[in-house]
Amino acid sequence: MAGILAWFWNERFWLPHNVTWADLKNTDEATFPQAEDLYLACPLAFCIFMIRLIFERFIARPCAMGLKIQANGPQKAQSNAILEKVFTAITKHPDEKRLEGLSKQLDWDVRTIQRWFRQRRNQEKPSTLARFCESMWKFTFYLYIFTYGVRFLKKTPWLWNTKECWYNYPYQPLTVDIHYYYVLELSFYLSLLFSQFTDIRRKDFLIMFLHHVAAISLITFSYVNNMARVGTLVMCLHDAADVLIEAAKMANYAKCQILCNLLFAMFAILFISSRLGVYPVWILNTTLFESWEIVGPYPSWWVFNLLLILLQLLHSFWSYLIVKTVCRAISKGKVGKWNPLHVSKDDRSDIESSSDEDDGPPPSQKHHSSATNGTNKNHGTNGYLTGGSYPDEH
């Protein structure tokens, strides 16, 4: 174990030439980032998750009720033992051959069986109330941490001159503000990483998982080798647009359409300008070129910049999807009535889409004998379910 740790913490990987871990030990005169400082993030991530549960229950939920957001979830499919067995044990998306077999077995028409499977898939989705509570929690945290970041950074010299991120590097003292900022951001992303498996599942689940892993890796990397100054710039820049998208989603759930459209437009402008403009010109320029000129490259420098470039690729992907969504609305001439967070077959996970499975009035269902498993009471159901669509529904 000692050999593995020695290999992992190799100074020639983590630190610039002629710098050792001993040089960055805390003294009475100066405090430097220590890897063990980040251990605090694990229990704090659990605390943040518990705070989230309390917040959603006692703050977000009453707010949603005040806005007349209903707690009712999607309509449940009628009880049917045969279809339920197929759904749970075989497939949630039966093919044409299986549908025809079930139609003969139950004496139901294929359209009705398709609708039953659609309703059965949808009934496990969270209600609009749950979505509102999740968005309100994220909005509150992002607003707080972004406000904190702006108030802290406006007093720092590296906000105005990014070369200050590298002068006297890595012998830059760790301040209480930077330590708090880092531990809180890391704890939040850790809580998101694990709660992603219990939260509303979106279409780009794996992309968002990769985003969280990249964010956690960047925060950890930049703290351990004391690139904390540029790290604070990256974190603050990314929190800005997240505030607006969560606010837009809340407006959408509350059916404040004009406000939703306005907030989404602001989000799209800020996201694209900050992630495709400010980020590469301001952040990548200093980490790739200014740091090369002042400090010079070393192994963990390459890893850090590769992670930043990966983040830029994700920015480009999401920006493309946002522009695609806007262009689709413009091309269809529906800008005036357009709901950007309620668009069918939208590709961005944060742009909540409505169910696009409304098939219109169904054909008459065949009446089946009492020997079949289940009864058909919903002849008039058209399969339309409120709430956002999930990946498997497109």
UniProtKB/TrEMBL annotation:
Keyword Lipid metabolism belongs to the record: yes
Domain Homeobox: 83-127
Any one GO biological process: ceramide biosynthetic process
Residue ranges annotated for the TLC domain, each copy included: 130-331
Chain residue ranges for the region called Disordered: 346-394
UniProtKB keywords: DNA-binding, Endoplasmic reticulum, Homeobox, Lipid biosynthesis, Lipid metabolism, Membrane, Nucleus, Transferase, Transmembrane, Transmembrane helix
Localization per Swiss-Prot or TrEMBL: Endoplasmic reticulum membrane; Nucleus
InterPro entries: HD (IPR001356), Homeodomain-like_sf (IPR009057), Lag1/Lac1-like (IPR016439), TLC-dom (IPR006634)
Catalytic reaction(s) noted: sphinganine + octadecanoyl-CoA = N-(octadecanoyl)-sphinganine + CoA + H(+)
Membrane topology summary: Multi-pass membrane protein
GO CC annotation: endoplasmic reticulum membrane; nucleus
Pathway connected to this protein: Sphingolipid metabolism; Lipid metabolism; sphingolipid metabolism
Gene3D superfamilies listed in its UniProt record: Homeodomain-like
Record carries keyword Mitochondrion: no
Transmembrane segments: 38-55, 180-198, 205-224, 260-282, 302-323
A GO molecular-function descriptor: sphingosine N-acyltransferase activity
Bias (Low complexity): 372-383
DNA-binding region in chain numbering: 85-128
Organism domain of life: Eukaryota
Chain's role: Sequence-specific transcription factor which is part of a developmental regulatory system that provides cells with specific positional identities on the anterior-posterior axis.
Protein name: Homeobox domain-containing protein
Originating organism: Takifugu bimaculatus
